């Protein structure tokens, strides 16, 4: 008993050491991943996202409260009751996750959580059977234990929200989290909430330090778990740990297993299987193919997610730029394209490589496209069972996986029906048009004209679900400003610009961007002023304006102090958001005298976007839609014979012009 009390007295102090070790571990991982870029990159990221230091005070403070309450409650409860009641964290986590992510858990998931909780309780009760105290704890102690459970679960789910919905890298967020955790725990010690004595220095003994190091590593791995998956699965994993420990102990130390323990093992195993079958698809991530392959039957409906793409590593930047500048449909250069394009790519590669290095060493667009596609297909399997199973394939124009690889993969998977779903909500001949033209060229080259039946979602700029998703992100962006200043904020929608040569041909991109912008403002129903600006100009020829840079300089001269940048033509983060807006335009805004420049979060894994994508495909399939009403009509000055083609369509199709 004396040893138990000494251990309880050490808990808060060992927690400080654990948090400090976590900080050191996170710093080590950060320095390793940024070795080539040096400490300056880490410093720049830390300064850029310093506001998160305050955001992480919430989960850090809650975790510190949890540790203090554990210290208090272990003195009031016997160990069996304490650990027994603590297992209800699973159900509380489910409730909080459902509320904070607006994602309902199905009945099977709730049953699975309850079964796992039951199994954990059986295991805990069996472990401490016969060790209960004769005196019952006061009712206030149960309230204290419930508060401890709420601190743990709310901190975990809130931590997941920050990890998934903020723009900082995982390592930077870990540093902020554990610095705040150290400060909060030191505060409780300084306030005298927990006891302090010379015996606390024993946490630095060789017997305890290895355990602290292991716990620090667990904390860092937990953040990876929360970012890649969710707090529900984290809770399930902790339940598995609770049962695996006695099983491993029985195996290695020849300890006997009691019947209640076997009941616990079977209950938790059954609950885990139910939870996994309801919530987790087994997938593996393959960069060469760029898609998440689920262990499913032959897909009845394939969704070809078409986008520009981006280099996943710094070594891919050169080939990405060469593919981009050699495409006459995005940057027309005439007969000199095959010579001038590669030359420009080589000249720009060092500079662009440096930019990608500053945003983490590559574009996250492949990651987000896979996340969006996987969740979209999961929802489609539920809301459109008649066209299930669905599977997404990534079709990037200038980066891997490119069109050829994805076509070959679909053929290997036995796909017959494909929806070409443009991830550019607004149509342009330079984006969606170029991707589709490349698709038809590759199909002909590979002699797959009759392999797949095709239909197109070629634009969805006014889709109600998409508008709602963008509107929600704008609301989140406005929340970054002080409440008393939000009415002063100018909402600056920033879209990728277009050469005026393309605009003069009749490309509808500018009109469709403007249409999206106006619908978002109508949906917001606020009195803020807004403007549409254009970014990412390349070269000296005229492009659509006003440029985002010029707009910021103009606002600075006018004395405007509050600007929110909203990336309007992008469905996920990539270099235009993470570098151009977050770094270049943020610096220009500061130089122009704009004191408060923020960016609304990109759509990424916004639940409203994922729901909108699934509903858009469902509607497309249900109505037997072949394309949008505008697709068959070429631009007035179009001279590309490939434009507006559909090979092997699901129904009769013809372009509204004589073939050239």
TrEMBL record:
Protein name according to UniProt: Ferrochelatase, mitochondrial
First-level EC class: lyase
Protein's UniProt keywords contain Zinc: no
Species name: Albugo candida
GO cellular component: Golgi membrane; mitochondrial inner membrane
Chief place of localization: membrane
EC code: 4.98.1.1
Topology versus the membrane: Multi-pass membrane protein; Peripheral membrane protein
């Amino acid at each position: 008993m004396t040893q138990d009390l000494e251990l309880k007295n050490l808990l808060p102090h060992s927690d400080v050491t654990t948090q400090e070790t976590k900080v050191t571990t996170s710093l080590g991982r950060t320095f390793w991943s940024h070795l080539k870029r040096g400490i300056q990159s880490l410093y720049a990221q830390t300064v850029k996202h310093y506001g998160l230091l305050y955001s992480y005070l919430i989960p850090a403070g809650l975790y510190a409260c949890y540790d203090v309450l554990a210290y208090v409650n272990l003195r009031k409860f016997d160990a069996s009751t304490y650990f027994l009641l603590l297992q209800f964290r699973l159900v509380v986590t489910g409730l909080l996750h459902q509320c904070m992510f607006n994602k309902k858990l199905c009945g099977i998931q709730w049953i699975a959580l309850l079964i796992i909780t039951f199994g954990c309780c059986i295991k805990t009760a069996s472990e401490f059977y016969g060790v209960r105290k004769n005196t019952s704890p006061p009712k206030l102690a149960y309230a204290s234990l419930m508060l401890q459970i709420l601190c743990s679960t709310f901190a975990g789910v809130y931590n997941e929200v920050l990890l998934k919905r903020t723009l900082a890298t995982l390592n930077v967020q870990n540093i902020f989290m554990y610095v705040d955790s150290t400060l909060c725990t030191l505060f409780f010690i300084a306030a005298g909430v927990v006891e302090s004595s010379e015996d606390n220095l024993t946490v630095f003994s060789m017997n305890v330090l290895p355990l602290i190091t292991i716990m620090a590593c667990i904390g860092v791995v937990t953040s990876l778990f929360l970012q890649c998956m969710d707090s529900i699965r984290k809770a399930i994993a902790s339940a598995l740990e609770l049962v695996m420990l006695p099983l491993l102990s029985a195996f290695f130390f020849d300890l006997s297993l009691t019947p209640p323990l076997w009941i616990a093992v079977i209950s938790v195993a059954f609950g885990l299987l139910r939870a996994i079958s309801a919530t987790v698809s087994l997938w593996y991530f393959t960069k060469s193919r760029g898609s998440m392959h689920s262990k499913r039957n032959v897909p009845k409906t394939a969704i070809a997610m078409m986008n520009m793409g981006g280099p996943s590593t710094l070594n891919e930047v050169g080939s990405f730029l060469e593919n981009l500048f050699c495409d006459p449909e995005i940057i027309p250069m005439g007969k000199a394209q095959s010579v001038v394009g590669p030359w420009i790519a080589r000249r720009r590669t060092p500079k662009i490589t440096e930019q990608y290095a500053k945003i983490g060493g590559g574009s996250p667009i492949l990651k987000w496209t896979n996340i969006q596609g996987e969740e979209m297909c999961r929802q489609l399997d539920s809301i459109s069972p008649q066209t299930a199973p669905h599977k997404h394939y990534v079709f990037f124009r200038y980066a891997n996986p490119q069109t050829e690889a994805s076509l070959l993969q679909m053929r290997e998977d036995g796909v017959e029906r494909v929806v070409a779903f443009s991830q550019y909500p607004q149509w342009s001949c330079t984006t969606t048009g170029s991707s589709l033209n490349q698709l038809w060229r590759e199909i002909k080259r590979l002699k797959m004209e009759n392999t797949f039946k095709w239909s197109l979602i070629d634009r969805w700029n006014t889709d109600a679900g998409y508008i709602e998703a963008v509107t929600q992100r704008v609301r989140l962006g406005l929340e970054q400003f002080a409440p008393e200043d939000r009415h002063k904020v100018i909402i600056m929608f920033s879209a990728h610009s277009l050469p005026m040569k393309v605009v003069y041909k009749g490309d509808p991109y500018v009109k469709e961007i403007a249409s999206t912008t106006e619908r978002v403002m109508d949906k917001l129903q606020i009195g803020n002023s807004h403007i549409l600006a254009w970014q990412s100009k390349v070269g000296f020829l005229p492009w659509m304006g006003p440029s985002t840079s010029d707009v910021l300089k103009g606002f600075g001269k006018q004395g405007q102090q509050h600007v929110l940048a909203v990336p309007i033509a992008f469905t996920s983060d990539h270099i235009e958001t993470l570098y151009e807006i977050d770094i270049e335009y943020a610096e220009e805004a500061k130089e122009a005298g704009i004191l408060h420049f923020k960016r609304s979060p990109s759509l990424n894994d916004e639940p409203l976007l994922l729901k909108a994508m699934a509903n858009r495909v469902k509607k497309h399939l249900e109505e037997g839609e072949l394309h949008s009403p505008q697709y068959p009509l070429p631009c007035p000055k179009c001279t590309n014979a490939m434009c507006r083609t559909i090979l092997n369509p699901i129904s009769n199709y013809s372009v509204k012009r004589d073939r050239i």
